[in-house]
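Quick question, first post here. What does this chain look like in 3D?
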Amino acid sequence: MTNEHIVELDVREDLRLKKEPFDKIMGTVKSLEPGQAFVLHAPFNPVPLHKVLGRKGFEYEVEKVEKKHWKVTYTKKEETSNGN
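> Answer (accepted):
Ran it through. Tokens below.
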């Protein structure tokens, strides 16, 4: 996957400043073009977000970079032609 197919968002500073990053994350997700992946940098594994984005058709892969740096790559599942 090339860089133009990856959108990255780092919310570690927002969370350090006690700012809720959910709206920023969801805005980024909505702006994704077909075929783009979304990489989130967070200070923890955002398990509730996995569930929210899973309902929107995303799969995820988690990598713990260091103690307070988690990198999560979300990719849209391939659409199946089931009449929807």
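The CA atoms of residues 54 and 60 lie 8 Å apart.
The first helix runs from residue 12 to 16.
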